[in-house]
Specification:
Elements: E1 7-12, H1 16-33, E2 36-42, H2 49-58, E3 64-68, H3 83-93, H4 95-103, E4 111-115, H5 122-128, E5 132-136, H6 140-155, H7 190-201, E6 207-210, H8 218-225, E7 239-241, H9 252-256, H10 258-265, E8 272-276, H11 285-298, E9 301-306, H12 338-341, E10 346-350, H13 355-359, E11 364-369, H14 373-381, E12 386-388, H15 395-405, E13 409-410, H16 423-434, H17 440-457, H18 462-479
Parallel strand pairs: 1-2, 1-4, 2-3, 4-5, 5-6, 6-7, 8-9, 8-11, 9-10, 11-12, 12-13
Helix pairs in contact: 3-7, 6-7, 6-8, 11-16
The protein binds uridine-5'-diphosphate (UDP).
EC number: 2.4.1.-
Enzyme class: transferase
GO molecular function, one term: UDP-glycosyltransferase activity
């Protein structure tokens, strides 16, 4: 019998950072609104390892998860193509598989929700005659820039990064040229045309869900809704801030990691710095050495998720982790004697750690992070102040938001992607958020945001209301 509640098909692009918020959205639609949810995931070589664990823990009883068959895109991209290009091409090539998987479903979906890289699949919803939405699993300021980039494309001559003035995204905090998102770094690269296309396709959706909350980004959200500002671009397309949607505490790997949690249990309250660069971030060898020295000089306790450094001087990688296979052993690349000297002070975790469980532990008092949006939300919702270390994607914007607008983070003076950050500066930053009086205000501010996030998600408050409104609209559309 046909369910009277909506059946949402959610499409996630590959990569843990994309999957996690899609899974959380799916789970809430099921648990709070009785939707049926099928999540389509585009497989990649990140599948395996942690993804398998995550999937097995999420499949039942919440959603069906369908992994679309891997696509061979080797002939379609040049070697060394940027991540945005790789993901965009994978999503494009997966469209036929998505179409046939949907048409083979016994209970067809009544709406489609694509993520940032899935906007080309909105046309499948058109073919089926069902409503279509986009889920921006990041922040509202980045969403505003994404919607505005087709306009900037017409207004700005030359490379964005060579401009001397910030970009005025109407109604929003201006975007400094050095913090633009990766696809805007080089306008001649394919990743730029893919991003531009995404900016054009977003407003074709019936609405946009975004993983933030009203009280965190009132200015950007107001701009997105104001017809005289960005609302002109997303006219009649409601914006639903439904966040923060984060992975819950209690991941399966946290239960097996007895040594780590046993050690954390013995440390004083908020005394441990957590260091991690997301699901795929890596540092150069030189930078890793400076980070190690900086932590040691700060004399603070730490848990550091380590990965073999990149061979080139270019920080940042993607699609490398989640399999536990890419670590040479920390003593091969950390400063000589570091492991022995810091044995009492900290723990090194190779490749992957149960991040949310660590951040929620009372002994953790700071997070040196690459500022991926999931990591950012996980830090805020656990009241942990941050040191910003943006590497790729929209992380430079996230870092700016955290430091300049929200006041919950400190960071190096120069961007780590531009210049080697030295050990003394790192030690100072660590001490600032962990022990110095100067950092007390930052800690107080992040605790305030933690409470604001909890409130937003509670029944009747902003994000809960936004998701309820979205659910109501979907039901009305279904029964129309
Ligand atoms: N993550 C984790 N353990 C790790 C590295 C990452 O659990 O060792 C999780 C992290 O908690 C977050 C996600 O992977 O939920 C990373 O997403 P984010 O948006 O922060 O960054 P990305 O990896 O997409 O750059």
């Amino acid at each position: 019998m046909q369910s009277s509640k909506p059946h949402a098909a959610l499409l996630s692009s590959p990569g843990m950072g994309h999957l996690i918020p899609v899974l959380q959205l799916g789970k809430l639609l099921v648990t709070q609104h009785n939707f049926t949810v099928t999540i389509f995931v585009v497989a990649s070589h990140t599948s395996g390892g942690e993804w398998e664990v995550l999937r097995s823990s999420m499949t039942s009883p919440f959603c069906d998860i369908v992994e679309l068959p891997p696509v061979d895109i080797s002939g379609l991209i040049h070697p060394g193509a940027a991540v945005v290009t790789v993901i965009s091409v994978m999503m494009r090539e997966s469209k036929p598989a998505l179409r046939s998987a949907i048409s083979a479903m016994k209970l067809p979906p009544t709406l489609l929700i694509d993520d940032l890289f899935g906007t080309e699949s909105l046309e499948i919803a058109n073919e089926l005659g069902i409503p279509k939405y986009v889920y921006m699993a990041s922040n509202a300021w980045f969403l505003a820039l994404t919607l505005y980039v087709p306009t900037l494309d017409k207004l700005v001559e030359g490379e964005y990064v060579e401009q001397t003035e910030s970009f005025r995204v109407p109604g929003c905090r201006p975007v400094k040229p050095e913090v633009v998102v990766d696809p805007m770094l080089d306008r001649t690269d394919q990743q730029y045309s893919e991003y531009l296309r995404i900016g054009i396709e977003f407003p074709k959706a019936d609405g946009i869900l975004v993983n933030t909350w009203e009280e965190l980004q009132p200015q950007a959200l107001a701009a997105l809704r104001d017809v005289k500002l960005l609302g002109g671009l997303a006219k009649n397309h409601p914006i639903y801030p439904v966040g923060p949607l984060t992975r819950p505490v209690g991941s399966p790997s946290s239960r097996t990691n007895k040594q780590l949690f046993g050690w954390l249990e013995k440390q004083p309250h908020e005394s441990v710095l957590f260091v991690s660069f997301g699901s795929g971030g890596t540092l150069s060898y030189e930078q890793m050495n400076e980070v190690a020295w900086g932590i040691e000089l700060s004399q603070q306790r730490f848990v550091w998720v380590v990965r073999t450094p990149t061979v080139t001087n270019r920080d940042a990688a993607f699609f490398t982790s989640g399999t536990g296979a890419d670590d040479d052993g920390p003593s091969n690349y950390l400063p000589e004697g570091f492991v022995d000297r810091t044995r009492e002070m900290g723990l090194l975790v190779p490749v992957w750690a149960p991040q949310v469980d660590i951040l929620s532990h009372p002994s953790v008092g700071g997070f040196l992070s690459h500022c991926g949006w999931n990591s950012t939300l996980e830090s805020i919702t656990n009241g942990v102040p941050m040191i910003t270390w943006p590497l790729y994607a929209e992380q430079r914007m996230n870092a700016t938001l955290l430091r300049e607008e929200l006041g919950v983070a400190v960071g190096p003076e120069a961007l780590p992607s531009k210049k080697l950050v030295g050990r003394d500066e790192i030690a100072k930053l660590v001490r600032k958020i962990m022990v110095d009086e100067e950092g007390f205000g930052i800690r107080a501010k992040v605790k305030e945001l933690k409470r604001s996030a909890e409130k937003a998600l509670s029944k009747g408050d902003s994000s809960h209301r936004a998701l309820s409104l979205f659910a109501e609209v979907c039901e009305v559309q279904q029964n129309a």
